[in-house]
Amino acid sequence: MTASGLRMRGYTDADLPRLTDTFADWIAQAGSCGYDHVGEVPHRIYENLRGRPIGELVQLWERDGEIVGLAVNGRFGNAFDVFTAPGLRGGGAELTMLRSAADTTAGQTDEGAVLTDVFDCDTTRIDLLERLGFARFRTWDQVNERDLREAVGEPGLPDGFAVRSARLVDADQLAAVRNHSFGTSWTGGLYRSAVMTKPGYDPAHEIVVEAPDGRIAAFAVCWLDRRNRIGHFEPVGTHRDFQRRGLAGAVMRHAMRWMAGLGMTRVSVNHDAENVAARRLYASLGFHKRCETYGYRRAIDTVRPARSR
């Protein structure tokens, strides 16, 4: 197919319900190779972009009134994602979306290259990226999956610790546990305004472990694809003061039992391929590697001139 008839516009919060339904439809049609879990859509838009101008960085592609593509630009400064409807994969429309995303992201960063990732099984996307001058430079994530019809086991928390759902008043604590887990710089106000009050987020789906002193010691955000009956974790973290106590495993076991009760038959979680601790944790919980993602990059000066500094 050609790119004729495509229209690009900026994303708005009101688009999310239709967009996630569209994602679920694409996965039902074509499977998961080439498509992240529907929960990655709000996560990447709101948590990864952290209050930046979403209408400028997130682009929807439409044809005849239907969503046929999504680009999330400027993630982590110089990375982008593009997802394309199954019927347009491999053709001019997908190339147009990739070129546009690379150009938009290049204009948002002072880094020397723009980056994207691709599933190892997605030979269609790999071919297009290489045609556009991108080259593989690393293995990015390990994508893991678990059958929720198999026994999960009891959470097993240390004495004095308790599992509960998050609350809006936990914003400061949720920002702190992310900062201690990942080295980020969230404030409670930013997490509340950029994530907790945005569409797609439900505090009941952010499961936390509360320590005896009242601090949030660990957390896991759960996402549900009810159409395909697949759950997903993103992100999962433990405050550095509480690591190596089994808290991440406990909160995930609690959440998996909850997901299974809602009819999910599978659950997925991704981690950096170099993160040995995460690999061991997820393996201990019954997850198995389904595939990997590869990082591809292209120098900025082959995309567009870098911004003046």
TrEMBL record:
The keyword Transmembrane helix does not apply. The keyword Cell membrane does not apply. InterPro entries: Acyl_CoA_acyltransferase, GNAT_dom, YpeA/RimI_acetyltransf. Residues 161-307 form the N-acetyltransferase domain. Keywords: Acyltransferase, Transferase. SUPFAM superfamilies: Acyl-CoA N-acyltransferases (Nat). This is GNAT family N-acetyltransferase. It comes from Polymorphospora lycopeni.
